[in-house]
Specification:
Elements lengths: L2 H14 L3 H18 L6 H6 L2 E4 L3 E7 L13 H19 L4 E12 L7 E11 L3 E10 L4 E13 L1
Antiparallel strand pairs: 1-2, 2-4, 3-6, 4-5, 5-6
Length: 162
């Protein structure tokens, strides 16, 4: 049996035995894989988080829908997913600001979780605080639908050759 045949068989069994909640999650995951295959996102994690970004001169805004894929065992958005959202926004901005022959990598990320997450979407606004030839410092805030800040962060990015 090929790997594809095995996965098709396994997937069919899962679909046959699942509930509506799990079907919605499976639909979201399949949509994410399709977005990645179509090049709509730069990475699988961005595809799975359904990232939408707006890049400006020295700022980026990234929004994601809140889905069960982001939940921790308590049924709320996992703090690590917030960290991933923040690091994705800051990483996108730092790499856009880096010289063409360089990339920027996270060397430090500091997050303060401020409020419970409610609503349907999260939005991260990241800006460059300092841009040096070898180091960048960025800051970010994450807001829920009603504009309330749910996290604030700062980070350092090291600029290295590709």
């Amino acid at each position: 049996m090929t790997k594809k045949d095995f996965l098709l068989q396994k997937f069919s069994q899962i679909i046959a035995e699942t509930n509506d909640k799990d079907l919605a999650l499976i639909d979201s995951i399949v949509d994410s894989l399709e977005r990645e295959q179509n090049g709509a996102n730069r990475s699988y994690i961005e595809a799975f988080m359904n990232v939408e970004e707006q890049l400006e001169d020295d700022a980026v805004t990234i929004s994601i829908p809140i889905t069960p894929l982001l939940y921790n065992p308590l049924g709320i958005v996992h703090g690590g997913m917030i960290a991933t959202l923040i690091d994705t926004a800051m990483g996108t901005l730092s790499n856009e600001a880096a010289p063409l022959d360089k990339v920027a990598v996270t060397t430090q990320l500091n997050i303060h979780y401020l409020a419970a997450i409610k609503g349907n979407n999260l939005t991260c606004h990241a800006t460059i605080t300092h841009k040096g030839s070898r180091m960048m410092v960025l800051s970010a805030v994450v807001e829920r639908d009603d504009g309330k800040k749910v996290a604030a962060a700062s980070s350092n990015f090291f600029v290295i050759g590709k």
